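User: Hey, quick favor. My workstation is busy. Could you predict this chain's structure for me?
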Amino acid sequence: MNRKILFFILLSLSFVLIDCNHRSNNETQKSDNEKIIDYPVMVNLLIDCYLTEGEIFTNAQQEDKREYTRYCYRELFQKYEITDRQFQASIDYYLQDKETAETLMEEVNMRLNFLRDSTQKIE
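Assistant: No problem, here it is.
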């Protein structure tokens, strides 16, 4: 459970650092809700976010960490063809229901553990 809390804290902090402005401010809240990221895609996206955070933490020099974070998330959002606002709206949507949020994070955690274990076997 502590990992989940830490993950969401790290994820929230990343959004403070990100200045991606891919959409105009005139779009309505309804359009954000219509574009909620599908659950299976959200699982993959969160896995990539977790891996991205690890890369940022280990690779970025202290003075350019903020810019490197922006770059990494811009690339990640382009990969999934989403905007930062769509991502945030989807996070908010999945966090509305505690059971859904826990299931989502359990699946992300399980797959991350599988990736870690697979990588350790190769080494």
